[in-house]
Every structure is written in structure tokens, then in C-alpha cells.
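Re: that chain you flagged

S.,

Sorry for the slow reply, it's been a week of failed gels. I finally had a moment to sit down with the sequence you sent. For the record, here it is as I used it:
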Amino acid sequence: MTATPAQAIPAPAVCVVTGANSGIGRATAIHLAGAGYTVWGTVRALSKATKLQAMADTAGVQVQLVELDVADDESVRAGFEQLLTATDGVVDVLVNNAGVGGNSVAEECPTQLYLDVMNINLCGPARCWQQVLPGMRARGRGAIVNVTSIVGRIAALAQSPYVASKWALEGVSEELAQELAPFGVRVAIVEPGVTKSAIFAKNIDTPRTTDAYDPAYRRMFQMYAAGLARATDPTEVGKVVHAAITSATPVLRHAVSWGAAELLAGRAAITDEQWVALGAPADDEAYYDAFAATFGLNLRDIG
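Prediction finished late last night. Pasting the C-alpha cells below so you have them in one place:
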């Protein structure tokens, strides 16, 4: 028996983009509005959305705003109640973009940091899709787009809480896609590599309770330095989101931005034991050589 693919969601339709105040969320909201969708962006504070509104004005589009914090059950409930009242109960597309980073090697990571990052990066999307899925199921139509990260597929060094949260969101998204298949609701996972975003400027802390893991932290920051020198414009992610909700044949995973294709291909080409061995060099230069040989990415090139 061949299942009927969930239908595409072309404009006009109602889209909600969480974390719309910066980076990927802002670019996606503006791109979808430009494509003819009615877009609602969630922000934690309306007073801080001036740049979003200015960029939307420059693009000649409207992004309507609702204030909510994806980390809080009541805030999400109240925000979506307001939003659904304004849209006559209809949300056709939910783009779960809001998220935070989190640096730490596993030995040093406070358990509370795992919980805090997971609360935003996994529970945040769950809170939001729980608000819109009853309506999508009833209409037999809709799309959930979960923005994870390439580290949801590649266990990058020294980002233990971030990796944990994005792997978790990847797994739940796979499950969700099967669960929603009978109801005509599609699920797409968008996996950005390094994309121009304010998240990197905010994500520079490490616990560093010992100097034993200095090489791991150093190599992690070096990878992002190399990526940021060539970071992909966030609008490209918005275009991928748009393609994911309008394609005639749904595709579950969509990798995009600097490093994503290379990291996925390189990891698929090596064994688990080779992956583990990649972390063994004590010397940074030897590590950078091994990384380049495996993934074709030059971490020394940050200019």
C-alpha cells in the first residue's frame, strides 16, 4: 500500500515562525511573507522587535507579532490563544525555529544546563506543535517544520547540551512524521550548518572546570570561526523552509548552509571507530589535517 503524500502548503496560508526576532527566524518570516503567506512571528518581547519590523518594512511585507516564550507552558498557551483567535483558529504551517546554543564537554556540563537547553530546544517546539496540531488534524492539512542543526546529526565537539537537544529534536521529529502521516500533515527537519546569526555571539561561554579539555573547546571555536568567515545568509534557510512546505513530494530532512553537506557526507563515509579516532590527536594541527581529510573543510582558513 502506497501512502498519499501530505499535500503542499502554498500561499496564501497562515504561517507561524518562532524566534522571529533575529537570524534564521527573522529571515524565514520575511521570506515567507514575501512569498505571499500570512506570517506571524513569535518574539519574547514586542519592544525588542524593532529591527524585524524595520527589515519587513524595507522588504515591503508584513510580519505580525505575538509575544510568547517557548520555554514557558503558560506563555505559549496564552500566545497561541491570542494568535488563533486572530486567525479564526487556523495555522497551516508552524516553523519551530526558536532555540539556544550550549557549550560544554560532557564531563563538565552541569545537569541543569542540559535541562535548560532541552527545555527550549526540544520542549519549546513540543509546546508549540501541541497548540496547532488539533486544528491541522481536523482539517487534514498542515506542515510542521523543525529547525534542528547539523549537530543534530554530527556529535560536534564540546557542545554536549546543544548536541543532546538537537539529537532529541531530530528523533522526536522522525516519530512525529510517522504519527502525522495518517492525518495529511507533513513534517520537515531543516538542518542548518553555520549560518549568519546572533546565536554565535551569545554562545561563547564554557564551564571549563579543568584545562584537560582545552583542545576540545579550542577546536570547536576554530570550526565556528572558519564557518563564520563563510557563513550562509539566513535567507537561504528561509528558502529551504519554503521549498520543504511546497514540494509536491515531501522530504523529511533538508541540510543547508556552510559545512552541512560536507559534514554529513564525511560522517556517512567513515565508521564509528574512525569517528572516535578523529578526536584522538593531541596536537591541533594533526586534528585539523584529519578533519580536512575527512570532511573537506579547512578549519585553519578563518580569513
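What I noticed first: Residues 99 and 121 are 5 Å apart (CA to CA).

Talk soon,
D.
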